[in-house]
Specification:
α3 (60-76) runs parallel beside α6, α7 packs antiparallel against α8 (140-160) and α11 (206-222) packs antiparallel against α12 (229-242). The longest helix is centred in the N-terminal third of the chain and has 35 residues, at 2-36. 85% of the residues lie in helices and 0% in strands. It is elongated, with a radius of gyration of 22 Å. The chain has helices spanning 2-36, 40-57, 60-76, 80-92, 94-98, 100-116, 120-134, 140-160, 164-178, 182-202, 206-222, 229-242, 245-257.
């Protein structure tokens, strides 16, 4: 009997730790799904709850992934200095060296922060690192989403820099990835067509620009998406280039109503 009691004393904390770690993992999975659905506040609340539980139980992996989830949300709402503090905590940990998903998402975050500061060479560097790290992510859905986001932001950067030949390379890769991936790529499909519209506008290929923008609007409207602002804004710019200010103002007004 005493042996059984001693064995129970030894293994009981392990069961308790497993229970807490499963709870943390579940919270972080839910936080990630909320973030993908752009429910940022809900994602942040779940991440903070996961971090608190991880710290209470000394669950190292949970703490690192909580840092990542919190950094994502902070970056998304414009608190980039605070996001960088969490990113540095991630990069200082042992998990960063061996976890491809952590690496890819951290590079993505650094790329977005660099973009917001107009540091485009760093933006490109980090998203290319993200693309390479993404290939090693074990989870299929997370791997696909990371590759899609890396390709999207690389092509978006080239569009902004008026480098259509380079942009097209990643646009073609992205379109292939988005086939049958509406559940995780809707925002990127809408924005990709809008980016292509912007690219063709800058090349004075106005009819092709309008064709891409119509695709963007069709996807957004068919899916009842609220991502209408960007394609409508670009459409306004296109009509202004065409010399039709009345149409341009109409699109700008629609964009504002959907902002």
């Amino acid at each position: 009997v005493s042996c059984i009691i001693q064995l129970f004393i030894i293994i009981a904390p392990l069961f308790s730790q497993n229970s807490f770690s499963s709870k943390v993992d579940s919270l972080l999975d839910e936080s990630y799904n909320k973030f993908v659905e752009l429910q940022i506040v809900e994602s942040l609340k779940l991440s903070e709850k996961a971090l608190l539980l991880s710290e209470e139980t000394h669950y190292e992996k949970g703490m690192v992934y909580s840092y990542l989830s919190i950094a994502r949300a902070l970056q998304e709402v414009g608190l980039r200095k605070e996001a960088l503090e969490y990113i540095e905590k991630i990069e200082d940990g042992e998990y960063f060296k061996k976890d491809a998903f952590l690496q890819a998402d951290t590079y993505w975050l650094r790329g977005r922060i660099a973009s917001s500061q107009h540091l485009y060479s760093f933006e490109k560097e980090y998203h290319l690192k993200q693309l390479r790290a993404s290939q090693n992510i074990a989870d299929f859905k997370k791997r696909e989403l990371s590759i899609i986001t890396a390709c999207f932001y690389i092509q978006n950067l080239y569009v902004k820099q008026n480098m259509p030949d380079s942009a097209i390379v990643y646009q073609e890769q992205l379109e292939q990835r988005l086939i049958g991936n509406d559940s995780i790529g809707l925002f990127y499909k809408i924005s990709l067509y809008a980016d292509k519209g912007l690219m063709y506008k800058s090349m004075n290929r106005f009819d092709e620009a309008a064709e891409q923008l119509e695709k963007s609007l069709k996807v957004a409207e068919m899916s009842n998406s609220h991502f209408l602002f960007y394609p409508l804004q670009v459409y306004g710019d296109l009509e202004m280039e065409r010399g039709d200010s009345a149409k341009a103002i109409s699109y700008y007004n629609r964009a504002l109503r959907n902002s």
